[in-house]
Design brief:
Number of strands of chain A: 6
Oligomer: heterotrimer
Largest sheet of chain B: 5 strands, antiparallel
Chains: A alpha+beta (169), B alpha+beta (369), C alpha+beta (115)
Largest sheet of chain A: 6 strands, antiparallel
Strand order of the largest sheet of chain A: 1-3-2-6-5-4
Structural class of chain A: alpha+beta
Distance between the termini of chain B: 36 Å
Number of helices of chain B: 16
Shape of chain A: globular
Number of helices of chain A: 4
Number of strands of chain B: 5
Distance between the termini of chain A: 28 Å
Strand content of chain B: 5-15%
């Protein structure tokens, strides 16, 4: 089941998970906001995956800059039964991270192929923000809690920018 | 039992997405309505592709039907979805042993035993496998019901639903003699009658335009999301249809086209259920549903390829396999036509046969609508 | 195109109507070597050809029909022919009107080179 915390994520994310047949997908902001997920049934699992993915993204970025002057765009790890694909998606003024887990029901080639479509659609749909967020925000845990609440039905969806709605709305 | 099946069918008819298909499929299996049980399980797998329970049910039904290779694939899927699934370990232990993979069988059963040391059926089977000898095969067959009934699976898999727990708790004596007899015989693989190169008309040679109700219709009714609530229960309680197609049966739709050749033709509707045609195996069973379902997955890849490569509509896919030349083509209303010809059939002829059958199918589907 | 698969791909690339040919991993769909014309996306072709072959192979095995030796997809805009060996696939993408019989024969002759 696919759920999103920000409405603009749904149109790119849903076809990606359907076409690739991935087991799990997680779209997050490096600040800790989870913008959409597929396959997770418990908030605690999303929380763990989100924290780890944000950490991997931050460290891979730092390592890439250290070694080659640029962060790694895509990471792939092949396990015995399952594989992980992770990629940065820079948009106009902001950056997101996609984590996908798949098994033999899909393939790295297909995931990469549909990721390209997903990235184009996400870039087109993402709201324009003026101030890029830090790799790991100071309020990471708070952001994560708020987005989990939105994803699993304990709070209203986040607004178009991925922020929780203000009290007046 | 019939009342329970009726009730479960009605429940499934009201909510096709309900997990009650697990109890219905298990009830049908225990009643030895294996064809209908198979269709319920296949529908469940389609709807709940990531559910270990769905694949587990399919595997157990396949074992009862003697289709070990498919059972093995289904249980392997269960283990991919849920590593350590006790029912799948036990089931694979049985299947691998029957297939002669004794070491692999022992490994599966040993893992199962380590996860549930109190299960005597596992310990007994493991001892048999390790003991070998002439009596082992028969003893394993005798142990099949215990190993593949799913009896203790639910206790070890937290994700399993209450439905499967309830189904698994049925008394062992509930398994009908028919199932037990089938288990002790040699399993029949879905070897196609076309594979031996013999000149047999596998789809019969009659067509008078009428369509006698066949077992496929039962499943077709079961899968309809908007069907009459009582219909599924009524139809699921019908006896199994005879294996040989009768004149006027939809299975003979392509009979005159394939007469005299080693070919089989199956027409699947948009939901992947057999609408017409016939695929007999070497042991006389009609394997059209199981073969059709397996092959219909190729259609998805064909559609994906033409879409992403910008090739427009796809006309056909031709697969040359060890046993047969298999051709797939889209037909009217989202249907899929599958032809299977003996391996030595010229490929140009396979394509010509496909086109003729597609024209017939489209005529028939058009008239049917 | 000077890899170990050049001897496989060059004869195929010379066939009339061939828009691209490649070797890819069957399991992961990742491109190993290719000859493709500019308009053809080699990575996409590799992923799709491998997926088609893998699905056909698994389906054939599950249906009791044994292994798959050759798969051909025919569509409005052309043909996709795929052959698998040693966890690799050899795929040829050709436009409509290409001689599929010749392409198939050339591919089958290349089988042993997919070591």
């Amino acid at each position: 089941m696919t759920t999103v915390a920000a409405g603009w994520v749904e149109e790119p994310l849903r076809p990606f998970v359907e076409e690739t047949n991935v087991l799990f997908a997680l779209l997050l902001h490096p600040s800790g906001q989870v913008l959409g997920q597929h396959g997770f049934t418990r908030a605690v699992d999303v929380m763990a995956a989100c924290a780890l993915a944000a950490g991997i993204s931050a460290s891979a970025g730092a390592l890439g800059r250290e070694l080659g002057g640029a962060s790694f765009g895509e990471l792939h790890h092949a396990g015995r039964d399952r594989q992980i694909f992770m990629a940065d998606i820079p948009t106009r003024g902001d950056r997101y991270v996609l984590l996908a887990v798949f098994d033999r029901g899909s393939s790295l080639g297909l995931v990469q192929l549909y990721f390209r479509q997903f990235r184009e659609r996400l870039v087109a749909a993402a709201p324009v923000t003026s101030t890029p967020a830090p790799a790991l925000a100071a309020d990471f845990e708070g952001e994560l809690d708020r987005s989990l609440a939105a994803l699993f039905g304990r709070a209203p969806r986040l607004d178009v920018g991925g922020r929780p709605p203000s009290p007046s709305t | 039992m019939v009342d329970e099946i009726r009730r479960l069918s009605e429940e499934l008819a009201r909510d096709p997405s309900s997990p009650v298909y697990l109890r219905l499929g298990e009830a049908l299996r225990r009643r030895a309505d294996l064809e209908v049980a198979l269709k319920v399980a296949e529908r469940g797998v389609q709807r709940h592709a990531h559910s270990p329970d769905a694949h587990d049910l399919l595997a157990r039904i396949c074992v009862d039907r003697g289709v070990l290779e498919r059972a093995r694939a289904a249980w392997e899927t269960v283990l991919r979805l849920m590593p350590g699934h006790l029912g799948a370990l036990k089931g694979l232990g049985y299947v691998l042993f029957k297939q002669g993979h004794t070491a692999d069988a022992e490994r599966m059963l040993a893992e199962a035993a380590s996860r549930d040391p109190a299960d005597e059926s596992i310990a007994t089977a493991l001892a048999m496998v390790r003991g070998g000898g002439n009596g082992a095969a028969q003893a394993m067959s005798d142990a099949r019901v215990a190993l593949t009934s799913g009896g203790s699976t639910s206790a070890t898999t937290s994700a399993r639903g209450a439905e499967s727990t309830a189904a698994a708790s049925a008394p062992p004596g509930d398994t009908p003699p028919r199932t037990a007899r089938a288990s002790s015989g040699t399993p029949a693989r879905a070897i196609p009658a076309v594979s031996n190169g013999a000149a047999v008309a596998t789809n019969g040679a009659h067509r008078d335009g009428t369509h006698a109700p066949a077992q496929g219709d039962v499943a077709a009714t079961l899968r309809d999301d908007d069907m009459d609530e009582g219909a599924a229960a009524e139809m699921s309680a019908q006896p199994l249809a005879a294996a040989e197609p009768a004149p006027g049966d939809a299975r003979t739709l392509f009979g005159d086209i394939v007469a005299g050749g080693a070919h089989a033709v199956v027409l699947l509707d948009a939901d992947g259920l057999v609408a017409a045609g016939h695929y007999p195996t070497m042991d006389g069973r009609d394997a059209s549903q199981e073969v059709g379902v397996e092959l219909s997955g190729v259609r998805d890849e064909a559609q994906r390829a033409v879409q992403l490569l910008g090739l427009g509509a796809w006309h056909f896919v031709l697969c040359e396999t060890e046993e047969a030349a298999v051709a797939l083509a889209p037909a009217a209303g989202g249907a899929l036509l599958v032809t299977l010809s003996s391996r030595d059939t010229p490929l140009g002829f396979v394509r010509r046969l496909l086109e003729r059958c597609r024209a017939r199918a489209n005529d028939w589907l058009g008239a049917d609508e | 195109m000077r890899s170990a698969f050049a001897t496989v791909l060059e004869p195929l690339a010379r066939q009339r109507g061939v828009l691209g040919c490649l070797v890819a991993g069957e399991e992961d769909g990742i491109l190993v070597d290719a000859f493709v014309r500019d308009a053809v996306d080699g990575a996409a072709l590799a992923a799709l050809a491998a997926a088609l072959h893998r699905r056909a192979r698994l389906a054939s095995g599950a249906a009791g029909l044994g292994g798959v030796s050759f798969v051909r997809l025919d569509a409005d805009g052309g043909h996709l022919c795929v052959l698998g060996h040693n966890e690799l696939v050899l795929a040829v993408f050709a436009q409509s009107g290409a001689n599929v019989g010749v392409i198939r024969s050339t591919m089958l002759r290349s089988l042993e080179a997919l070591a």
